[in-house]
Design a protein that fits this description.
binds flavin mononucleotide; Ubiquitin-like (UB roll); Rossmann fold; single chain; binds iron/sulfur cluster; globular; alpha/beta; five-stranded mixed β-sheet; 21 helices
């Protein structure tokens, strides 16, 4: 409890912060940003009830609408007495490395350990290397648009957020409706133990900005949102500077570029939830169709791609890779970007060309930490696959032609001394906490699954199987559906490990 004079001071600070934030834009779509700005000024403490009522009144919202938004985003830290961001992570990787009870916060995606300060390629260096020339070509020659679409199709560019949907198909859908589209760069990166987008933006932000501008020019969009994880603060600084450089060089004329922060929940990265949060609503996924490509941000056709998808597009218009940049390898289509963490000596983002076995990632990440024998890997994030060590030694192609999916390339290495069921229980706990709660199968299913995995004794396999079927068939979005599939794979896997 703050002292009385401290409380008074905090009220004044908050009142001033609200006034300033509203002066920057008093519209409902800025609601999340207003709440985050107030939180920042208050040193991480969320807005108070009176403050929220004031914001609601000014934005002409019912108090209940503003309350719904303020409480839906953990990062808003509504009425909290502890500053946001102080909790030590207690998620999968941190609990493996530092023990259960090392923290109780959510994964902050810093599983790659201590790193040096980012050193992004500057605007002038990017320009000097031939960057942004494609924009001149697009504005000079009308034929450049169909040529570029053809090149994207020939290159077979795919989305890198996990599903691998063809990029050209999304662009065509966005252009088909004939309305002015919006482009969104999805940098929410909420997936457990994944840090690839941060790696790209820290090294070469202009590679992403250029591709987003190309997407806007080709589709006729007049607005680009960079939607970036709230706690990726160095990235906000890097992007703000990079965007300002591009705008002052006149490269974005007619296209507004805005950086928005997400609200600290995994679901914020799901494209329909993301769009809802940009519109000032709670981040709840919508039933599809319609897909955002036809009806997205305020009903406009909306192109959402992952940061890595945009970055890799540069290869399509022939940018020469610069060998000294750590991210340059990504310009080769056969390179996969893995986020390797867990019981390895040198965790981090690893661009790998033609990986033949998953176990080779252990060597690429400096080998196992001392005294550890490989127990297996979690492949593909929170609802990914738990692979025992023997499978990590099998040819990757063989696994991929079966049921293995790499998702966004998250790899968590664990040892024989780590309890597989404990690892599965952490993943289920993450999904239960991150379920937005909108639909019963996911809300109840993820909670029951986490409970069952945590309970002592034999696993209730019939329950897990039932939950798996209901969740994979009846959940609104991919969080619940993928969680169902994850549960479906678990019983046989845990049995193999027990025997
Ligand atoms: C629970 C959930 C979280 C997601 N989080 C992200 C994310 O952080 N970043 C991202 O690019 N896509 C995320 N997605 C996928 C997006 O909905 C969308 O498909 C993606 O941004 C499209 O990018 P792509 O075309 O480049 O693959 C998430 C999906 C789900 C179901
Ligand atoms: S599946 Fe889960 S995360 Fe997705 S809408 Fe339903 S409750 Fe929310």
């Amino acid at each position: 409890m703050p002292h009385e004079s401290e409380a008074l001071h905090l009220e004044e600070v908050e009142a001033a912060a609200i006034t300033e934030s509203l002066a920057r834009g008093a519209s409902r779509e800025r609601l999340l940003e207003i709440l985050l700005e107030v939180r920042d000024v208050k040193g991480g403490l969320g807005i108070s009830e009176q403050g929220l009522l004031r914001v609601a009144e000014r934005l002409r919202l019912f108090p209940s609408e503003a309350y719904e938004v303020a409480t839906a985003f953990p990062a808003v830290n509504y009425m909290a007495s502890v500053p946001y961001a102080l909790h030590a992570c207690g998620d999968l990787v941190c609990s493996l490395l530092h023990g259960e009870g090392s923290g109780h916060g959510v994964c902050r995606n810093r599983c790659d350990g201590a790193r040096s300060a980012p050193n992004p390629r500057s605007f002038s260096a990017y320009r000097f290397a031939g960057g942004y020339q494609i924009l001149d070509r697009l504005s000079r020659d009308l034929q450049e648009v169909p040529r570029l679409m053809e090149s994207i199709a020939t290159y077979r560019a795919i989305g890198r957020a996990g599903v691998g949907f063809p990029v050209v198909e999304k662009w065509r859908q966005v252009m088909r409706r004939g309305a002015v589209p919006v482009v969104i760069v999805n940098g929410d990166e909420g997936e457990l133990a994944v840090f690839k987008d941060r790696f790209i933006l820290e090294n070469d932000p202009h590679g992403v900005i250029e591709a987003a501008l190309v997407a806007a020019r080709v589709t006729g969009a007049d607005k680009i949102f960079f939607y970036i994880r709230d706690d990726y603060k160095p990235i906000h600084v890097i992007l703000r500077k990079a965007i300002a450089d591009v705008v002052s060089a006149g490269l974005a004329s007619g296209i507004a570029i805005e950086l928005r922060r997400s609200g600290g929940a995994y679901i914020c990265g799901e494209e329909t939830a993301l769009i809802a949060s940009l519109e000032g609503r709670p981040p709840r996924p919508a039933e599809r169709p319609p897909f955002p490509t036809t009806r997205g941000y305020f009903g406009r056709p909306t192109l959402v791609h992952n940061v890595e998808t945009f970055f890799r597009l540069r290869s399509v218009w022939g940018s020469a890779p610069e060998p000294d940049l750590p991210v340059s390898d990504l310009l080769a289509a056969e390179v996969t970007l893995f986020s390797v963490s867990g019981r390895v000596r040198n965790p981090g983002p690893k661009p790998v060309r033609g990986l033949s076995r998953l176990i080779d990632l252990v060597d690429i990440a400096g080998g196992l930490t001392e005294g550890v024998e490989l127990g297996g890997m979690v492949v593909g994030g929170s609802s990914g696959t738990l692979l025992p060590a023997a499978d990590c030694r099998r040819p990757l192609d063989e696994l991929l032609s079966g049921r293995l999916r790499l998702g966004t390339g998250g790899i968590v290495v664990f040892g024989t001394g780590d309890d597989m069921r404990g690892v599965a229980s952490k993943m289920a706990g993450y999904l239960a906490r991150e379920s937005c709660g909108q639909c019963g199968p996911c809300r109840v299913g993820t909670a029951k699954a986490a409970q069952a995995l945590n309970a002592p004794g034999r696993l209730d396999v019939p329950l897990i199987n039932d939950l798996s079927v209901v969740m994979s068939e009846a959940s609104i979005c991919a969080l619940g559906r993928n969680a169902g599939r994850f549960l479906g794979r678990l019983p046989s896997l845990l049995e193999t490990c027990d025997s």
